[in-house]
């Protein structure tokens, strides 16, 4: 005997009517599924938001880029504590030439010199990181241009005293006033501000981010002429002098599939010419793959934790349906006596559990959408609710209801009609 649409509709109406006879009990039963579905969606939204932000930041570093950064060796840092006059470490001008000439997969290299200086504009003074680089920097480290122009080849060739500021630095120097065309004093030299870019800001952890919030980009040739290779720092009353030719090299590889092999080749080559480990290599592509793997693991863990709430909700449904079977024993006996089949009894109780779980799932979706919105509003954390999490949570809710409703439904169907009619 097939279940016709009309009969199915009547069974659904009957199921809703039976559940409405005990409104409070039905609502309390649904709470487990509501919080389970809501927690699944909220946890996945928080995880997706945090992962998406990190992945996007890594992607903007360039999947074909390799970032090599000068790092002071541990023994040099210990030596600085005993007031050694000069620390010599970092990348060399020859390293740039060797990499470009000997590794065929390297397409472009950007040399970088960095120095902390006090910049002055009018009456305002700001401690900034001065980045000496060339025009290719803005091709490899893509940042949105807000105003003016970027460094060009002629600026490098002519050793022009020009500077490109980050938006954060420009606002702190001039607040809401225009800065394009103004002069910025760095040390004893004046630089014309030709452009403003938006910066991502420095990141913590293993990822080497090339830019910071208060950077000023000037031609590499001008930085080398004005600041040289010696840098002086005053720390805790100690005058520390450092000799660093290059603070950073950003290497672009010809193809994405060559990135990891090229990074290994760079590591071997630098190891041949550097007696100490005075550099660090960061590969955004490897970090990207690692972050994606971490994201998958994170989602599985969060989903498993939230799934426990759904399991508890399913147990609640089984409990309430078993109680319903006991209460409706005489009703089941009457239906069996007038010709109802076992499968019809099973279908009736399964429909009630599906209605209960489906309703709880819908309410849980509302809770799951509300919680991430509150988290973003109050804590400022990025959240991202994906469609698959909504569908998955609702599907699991309905499945849990059906699985935990099968036993009570079968128990109801197996009741002896005569014994059921005698039940008080």
From TrEMBL:
The keyword Transmembrane helix applies. One of its GO terms (cellular component) is plasma membrane. It holds the Pfam family MacB_PCD. The keyword Transmembrane applies. It is a multi-pass membrane protein. The chain crosses the membrane at residues 27-47, 300-325, 346-375, 387-407. InterPro entries: ABC3_permease_C, MacB_PCD, Macrolide_Exporter_MacB. It is found in: Cell membrane. Residues 26-268 form the MacB-like periplasmic core domain. Residues 304-417 form the ABC3 transporter permease C-terminal domain. GO terms for molecular function: transmembrane transporter activity. It comes from the Bacteria. Keywords: Cell membrane, Membrane, Transmembrane, Transmembrane helix. PANTHER family: ABC TRANSPORTER PERMEASE YTRF, MEMBRANE COMPONENT OF TRANSPORTER-RELATED. Belongs to the ABC-4 integral membrane protein family. This is ABC transport system permease protein. It comes from Oligosphaera ethanolica.
